Amino acid sequence: MGQNKNYKFWFCTGSQDLYGDECLRKVAEHSAKIVEGLNKKGILPFEIVLKPTLISQASIRQTFNDANNDEECAGVITWMHTFSPAKMWIIGHQEYRKPFCHLHTQFNEEIPYDTMDMDFMNENQSAHGDREYGHIVTRMGIERKIIVGHWDSEDVAKALASWMRTAIGVVESSHIRVCRFGDNMNNVAVTEGDKVEAQIKFGWEIDHYNVNDLVEYVDAVSNSDVDALVEEYYSKYDIALEGRDADEFRRHVSVQAREEIGMEKFLKDGNYQAFVTHFGMLGGLKQLPGLAVQRLMEKGYGFGGEGDWKTAAMDRLIKIMTAGMKDAKGSSFMEDYTYNLVPGKEGIIQAHMLEVSPAIAEGKPVIKVQPLSMGNREDPARIVFQSKEGSGIACSLVDLGHRFRLIINAVECKKVEKPLPKLPVGINFWTPKPNLKVGAEAWILAGGAHHTAFTYDLTVEQMVDWAAAMGVEAVVIDENTNIRDFKNELRWNEMAFRLGL
After folding, report:
1. pTM metric for this prediction
2. How far apart are CA 463 and CA 473, in angstroms?
3. Which candidate among 1, 47, 180, 188 keeps its CA 20 to 30 Å from the CA of 489?
4. pLDDT in tens, 457-474
5. Between the CA of residue 462 and those of 348, 442, 457, what are the distances in Å?
6. What CA–CA distance (Å, rounded) separates 423 from 346?
7. How confident is the model at residue 500 (pLDDT cuts 50, 70, 90)?
């Protein structure tokens, strides 16, 4: 369920014909070496494709429209090798619809003090050309990523790699379709939202089905398929009977296997990449989907509890952005539960009644069957684990009525101080930055939800860039946050978005 398109990024160099063919030959040669060098570093998650040097309004417009129409092109990287009169770029940018990055670099790293003459100056003037180009993009009010530095440095390659994943999130956002099995939990505010505006803003399609539409799929699953999946469960996870009869335990696990297979077929048949359930709307399901949902999240589906379609879509978006990432530590739907307020040990238990992805587990997870007071169904099987340690981000997309706001909190995930033998769920324990006191106050001031889309594998900057590209507000809570400045930022943002600035 990761994104499976063979995405590429186009490298477009700007110049003009004032300095003759020999200069343009060198421009093309330099551009080719830059693209080849960046691709060979092994840092970029996607290939860069060199395009012919752009020296006219017509060629720029054609290239940008070709990029729009190429399904494999996820974005354009622009660079002004020489002076490129920026009015040439206006129509191309007016018609271009995908992410773009302005790479502010130059071919040579060091000034050639002993040999530099006016020919060299005229040919190598990115400091000149990129400013001309940057001016027109700013005047046009176009969102872009600016990366500054020598193209052969590891820092620039890493910055490009990071931006590429953000760009994939922008391009793939319009392909996210969320299936709602049931509606939002009654009287809960934060899981509600304007689905029409979400489709306008993000491209998300959010559909609804009666849960019994799913039950038909679940009931149609063959016993042989259920048995095969149960065998997979028993080989992949530890089994904790905890005094239950082994056959009875396996029967409960089989219910989840049947639900997983049926649910996944339903989602595939409908071309859905994210979904929600609600413990109060289970229809003919025998158990609240627990292990089944956890497994689907691990496969790449986005999920939100109690009908939270915004978090389900964000969870899927994060999975798209991190697909194929080397040494990824995982992502998951999360919910704030309980504080530890002991000085020096502050943190928040993150979990859900069942549905936390084992992709974030430390070590081998365990399957348990335990009663659940929610849902009024038989005891559901679930995967139980403690999450990995390390830095991560928790994201909450909220609907403020006249706009969406993405709240991004940098967090530090830790081990719980003591075991939790009576809490049979997957858990994470984190301390929000800069600390629990400031982080929690800032989160509440910003209107953050109790559900989040969490990941170890993306940065605050990447999510801020995604929000900017989508045209929505982003507020950050991290090590630099203080409440006085944060309140002012929220006031200024309110004014800016009310005025459409």
Report:
1. 0.96
2. 11
3. 188
4. 999 999 999 999 999 999
5. 24, 20, 10
6. 19
7. confident
> Is the predicted pLDDT of residue 36 greater than 90, yes or no?
yes
DSSP H helical ranges for 115-271: 118-123, 126-139, 154-173, 195-202, 211-219, 223-236, 246-269
- What tokens were used for 395? 């994201």
Q: Please give the C-alpha separations between residue 219 and each of 181, 225, 343, 494, in angstroms, as whole numbers.
A: 16, 12, 51, 50
Q: Residues 294, 426: contact at Cβ < 8 Å?
A: yes
How far is the C-alpha of 267 from the C-alpha of 181, rounded, in Å? 11
For residues 395 and 304, the answer to whether their CB atoms sit within 8 Å is no
Quote the longest CA-to-CA distance of the chain.
Answer: 86
Q: In the numeric block, which tokens belong to residue 354?
A: 């069942």
Residue 80 and residue 129 in contact, taking contact as beta carbons nearer than 8 Å = yes
Share of the chain above pLDDT 90, in %: 92
> Which pLDDT belongs to residue 4?
64
Paired tokens of 33: 């070496």
50-73 burial, b if ≥16 CB within 10 A, otherwise e?
A: bbebbbeeebbbebbeebeeeeeb
Alpha carbons 98 and 150: distance in angstroms, whole number: 25
Q: Is the dihedral of CA 432, 386, 179, 173 positive or negative?
A: positive
d(CA 225, CA 219): 12
Residue 498 burial class via C-beta count within 10 angstroms: exposed 0-12, middle 13-18, buried 19 and up: exposed
Assess whether the previous peptide bond of 424 is cis (omega < 30° from 0). Answer: no
Q: Rounded distance, CA 269 to CA 369, Å?
A: 30
**Length of the chain counted residue by residue:** 501
The C-alpha atoms of residue 112 and residue 128 are separated, in whole angstroms, by: 17
Give the count of beta carbons closer than 10 Å to the beta carbon of residue 243: 6
pLDDT in tens, 275-286: 999 999 999 999
Q: Averaged over 97-123, what is the pLDDT?
A: 93
Whether 3 contacts 172, CB under 8 Å: yes
In the numeric block, the tokens 């995967």 are attached to: 383
pLDDT of 346? 97
Contact 410, 433 (CB under 8 A): yes
What is the distance between the alpha carbons of residues 438 and 433, in angstroms, rounded to a whole number? 8
Contact 290, 380 (CB under 8 A): yes
Tell me which H or E stretch contains 335: strand 331-340
pLDDT of residue 19: 81
Enter the tokens of residue 97: 């619809």
- Give the tens place of pLDDT for each residue, 207-250: 999 999 999 999 999 999 999 999 999 999 999 999 999 999 99
